[in-house]
Specification:
Chains A, B: It holds the Pfam family TetR_C_14. Chains A, B: Keywords: DNA-binding. Chains A, B: InterPro entries: DNA-bd_HTH_TetR-type_CS (IPR023772), Homeodomain-like_sf (IPR009057), HTH-type_TetR-like_transc_reg (IPR050109), HTH_TetR (IPR001647), MftR_C (IPR041347). The structure is a homodimer of 249-residue chains. The first copy, chain A, is mostly helical and 249 residues long. Chain A has three domains: 55 residues, Homeodomain-like (Arc Repressor Mutant, subunit A), CATH 1.10.10.60; 131 residues, Tetracycline Repressor, domain 2, CATH 1.10.357; 37 residues, no CATH class. A two-stranded antiparallel sheet of chain A has the order 1-2. In chain A, a hairpin with a 7-residue loop joins strand 1 and strand 2. In chain A, helix 7 runs parallel beside helix 10 and helix 9 crosses helix 10. Chain A starts with a helix and ends in a 6-residue tail after the last helix. Strand 2 of chain A pairs antiparallel with strand 2 of chain B.
Chain lengths: 249, 249
């Protein structure tokens, strides 16, 4: 087998194992498919399978390890100029890109995962690792803030929940529609709740009776007048909308 | 065995199984302990064990099913007068109560769970079920809001993350300190980001140069003046603090 392995470049063999696995999962069901079935269909040996995938579950999520590594590298390449909440939102978008690379595969996997409790548990552990990567980065950036670890954990969880809400909505629509716009909107909600607005743009935001840049210092001051009963999330959204009209469709 | 089972009231047998299991887990390790070992030490049969616990993992978390049922009942008993974000925070406090009922057991379990990957995965699935219970309630309450399901999922995730950050901090301190105060503070952060302030109190909030109730309509209007670069979470926290000084230590 090892001679055969060496004769083939690695990516095709890995891809053919994933393709064989999914063909069998869809035909027979996940539980009814063994690793022996998969390697027989792919025309390789068991050792080749386990070189790429520690277990049958891992072949269902072949790209998460790479994506986790990409996310960690992306966050490690940050510096002080990156607004931290925006940065973790951008890191979460790497997961969306992985799903959007191959919509039909992602939709098939989504349906499979919903049917198999073991895969659901596996997915939860993967999601947890993404969330910890975001939280660890935020903890580093928010160390100067009182209760920085609390804020880091809450923001990371909110980012993951927003991303996954949008991703699931796209997967439920069979991968139709604009996944990027859906995820952008969802992450915008988290940024409106927790993020710091970026440096002011050259042009002042449009004035309004409810919320207007003070005339004396158009770039520095925002005045909010709100009824006391106004929900805080509405106040925040209003501020965000007025400050950055382009970012809030 | 069934005659013996009937002779004993159920709670003591269930408790003695948990006590025997934890004694063995701590002495020998979780993986090295079998269900047979547990029932031998507890002096009962295997059938009795599986009557109470579907698997060895479940004996590690003997109260989560009851707590999930309590949480679901608590949320089902809500009505329109309950501010939804505050309501899910109160629901999350039921989990804290379960842990705080028996601090030494909770601390032992925390250490065990950190050591055994299988238990960590089990715990993630339990946490996911709590989060879904909160999100389902919020989805029902926020149906009138645009993007209600997104907001529901994000708020539920933030509540769970805040609760668990505080709970873990208490468990790491070996169950010393005021768990309730720690969790209250953590949930207060989520409420400040997403919650609706309650109906105004009888006395107006104290005036301040930065943020003061308008003199003409002290109960109805709040004025915020902030530099444009101020992080939004700071604006929100400031509003919350001024409106409800008692709720923000």
């Amino acid at each position: 087998m090892s001679a055969t392995d060496k004769a083939q470049p690695k990516p095709p063999m890995r891809d053919s194992l994933v393709a064989a696995a999914f063909r069998l999962f869809l035909e027979r069901g996940y539980e009814q498919t063994t690793v022996d079935d998969i390697v027989a269909l792919a025309g390789v040996g068991r050792r080749s399978f386990f070189r790429y995938f520690p277990s049958k579950e891992d072949v269902v999520f072949p790209d998460h390890e790479r994506c986790l590594a990409d996310m960690t590298a992306f966050l490690a390449a940050s510096d002080e100029r990156h607004e931290p909440v925006r940065r973790v939102c951008d890191a979460a978008r790497l997961v969306l890109l992985m799903y959007a690379e191959n919509p039909s595969f992602s939709v098939q996997r989504y349906r499979l995962t919903k049917q198999v409790p073991g895969l659901r548990a596996y997915e939860l552990s993967v999601v947890w690792r993404y969330e910890r990567a975001l939280a660890e980065y935020l903890r580093g950036r928010l160390t100067g803030r009182t209760h920085g670890t609390l804020h880091a954990d809450v923001i990371a969880a909110a980012v993951v929940a927003a991303h996954n809400n949008a991703l699931r909505s796209w997967l439920r629509s069979d991968g139709r529609g604009d996944a990027t716009a859906t995820v952008d909107h969802a992450l915008g909600f988290v940024q409106s709740a927790f993020g710091t607005p970026p440096a002011p743009a050259a042009a002042p935001a449009p004035a309004s009776a409810a919320l207007s840049p003070a005339a004396e210092h158009p770039e520095d001051v925002v005045v909010v007048v709100a009824r006391r009963g106004t929900p805080l999330w509405r106040v925040v959204r209003e501020i965000e909308t007025r400050l950055e009209p382009d970012r809030n469709p």
